[in-house]
Write a structure and sequence with these properties.
By secondary structure, the protein is α+β, with helices and mostly antiparallel strands. It folds into 3 domains: 160 residues, Roll (SH3 type barrels); 115 residues, MgtE N-terminal fold; 108 residues, Roll (CBS-domain). The strands form 5 sheets. Strands 2, 3, 4, 5, 6, 7 and 8 form a 7-stranded mixed β-sheet that branches. Strands 1-11-12-13 form a 4-stranded antiparallel β-sheet. A hairpin with a 2-residue loop joins strand 4 and strand 5. Helix 7 crosses helix 9. The two termini are 34 Å apart.
């Protein structure tokens, strides 16, 4: 199977010659059609400048594309003025020099060079070279460029998702199904590293999965949370916050402009409103302000089998049900049981028999140093919070505590997802 590879920067700007070798004009750009199945994007033709006019040269009229010239297979071309067609992308104008998402590494990469490959006479977009060396080569005068099929770095197109919102004829956008394979924190990294328009395109791509969108907002830093909520309506903001964990939603609500807080809160479901209002009644640097009011609680008479059924039926995400609280008839906390202990225990056993009485609890007024000391001393992933009557009102997660203890730039995210 014969294969030829050329750099886009070599083709664009090169002479366009007819089948007899006579110069017709200059190649301005290479046109590809993206989103056509799972294969590499097909090159459908060239945009050429001939006699002061921009013309379309279809791929089936090309005899060869090389680093020094493009050759047609005919001496006659359609002289109709070039117009973009739906679904077509100009690789030089729309891709070269722009950012793309490397889905394999969850990073933004710059297309400093675009590689075209010809297999058995069919030209396709093979991938990009994001290395600085490729950009330097592209900026050199054409006579000083050395053509080489080797790369300092190469990213296959199959690993890439291009930003296409800026392309007027594009019918496609970022592929949700590919982005959804990434962890919400990785997608948040991409949003933070991207331009505002690119970030909006990422959020739009995941927007129909409202739970994933909320997870991403939880992972964004405060600056970017506000940046991407500022242009949304109160109802839209309320929708995002309503799907976030209550403690994170309460924190973000308080960062909104003051005149928006009550309208946004009022647009949330009543149950979510109550939880957030309860959290806002506590100092944000205490257990009451840090806790998540969503948890699973069981009566002490429940069996392990009943406990596991309750966990399965819970709407809470898995990371919020790794600890189950046990309460008595008066609603007071008896203790807690890990999900792992429930799985290992005899299903007929009562949950109260599994309670570790040495595991601590904290009052809502406990400060961060006290919380951190207890979680460290007892090697805890979570810690119950109780009110003055020893009734559970929330659960502290270790990641919420770490977020406060580590320096403000602990994530060092901005720019890290960009090459």
């Amino acid at each position: 199977m014969a294969q030829t590879v050329v750099h886009l920067s070599s083709v664009a700007g090169s002479p366009l010659l007819d089948s007899g070798g006579a110069r017709l004009g200059r190649v301005e750009d290479v046109i590809a059609r993206l989103g056509m199945g799972d294969g590499l994007p097909l090159v459908v033709g060239l945009k050429a400048r001939i006699g002061g006019r921009d013309l379309f040269v279809p791929a089936d009229r090309l005899a060869a594309l090389g680093p020094t010239a493009a050759h047609t297979s005919t001496t006659k071309l359609n002289l109709a003025h070039f117009e973009r067609r739906a679904g077509e992308v100009l690789l030089r104008a729309d891709v070269l020099g722009h950012s793309l998402i490397d889905v394999g590494t969850a990073r933004l990469v710059a297309a400093r060079e675009v590689e075209l490959s010809c297999v058995d006479g069919v030209w396709r977009v093979a991938g990009i070279d994001p290395s600085p060396r490729a950009r330097v080569r592209r900026l050199l005068p054409r006579r000083m460029r050395e053509h080489s099929e080797s790369h300092e770095r190469f990213v296959a197109w199959s690993e890439l998702e291009p930003f296409l919102a800026h392309v007027p004829t594009s019918r496609t956008r970022l592929a949700y199904r590919r982005l959804a394979r990434l962890h919400p924190a990785q997608i948040a990294d991409l949003v933070e590293a991207a331009s505002h328009d690119e970030g909006e395109e990422i959020l739009e791509a995941v927007g129909h999965d409202k739970e994933l969108e909320a997870d991403i907002f939880q992972e964004l830093d405060e600056e970017h949370q506000l940046e991407f909520l500022r242009e949304r309506s109160d109802a839209q903001v309320a929708g995002v916050l309503a799907r976030m964990e209550s403690d994170d939603a309460a924190d973000l609500l308080m960062e909104l402009d003051q005149d928006r807080r009550l309208p946004v809160l009022g647009a949330m479901p009543a149950g979510k409103q109550r939880k957030i209002r309860g959290l806002l009644g506590h100092n944000p640097q205490t257990a009451g302000g840090l806790m998540n009011p969503d948890f699973v609680a069981l009566d002490e008479s429940a069996t392990v089998e009943q406990a596991l059924q309750t966990v399965r039926r819970s709407d809470l995400p898995p990371d919020q049900v790794h600890t189950v609280l046990v309460i008595d008839d008066s609603g007071q906390l008896v203790g807690s049981v890990s999900a792992a202990a429930l799985i290992k225990a005899d299903q007929a056993e009562t949950v109260v028999a599994l309670v570790d009485e040495s595991r601590p609890v904290v009052a809502a007024e406990a400060d961060v140093p006290e919380i951190a000391r207890l979680m460290t001393d007892f090697n805890l992933m979570s810690l119950p919070v109780v009110d003055d009557e020893s009734r559970p009102i929330g659960v502290l997660a270790v990641d919420d505590v770490l977020e406060l203890l580590l320096p403000e730039d602990w994530r060092r995210r901005f720019g890290r997802a960009r090459d």
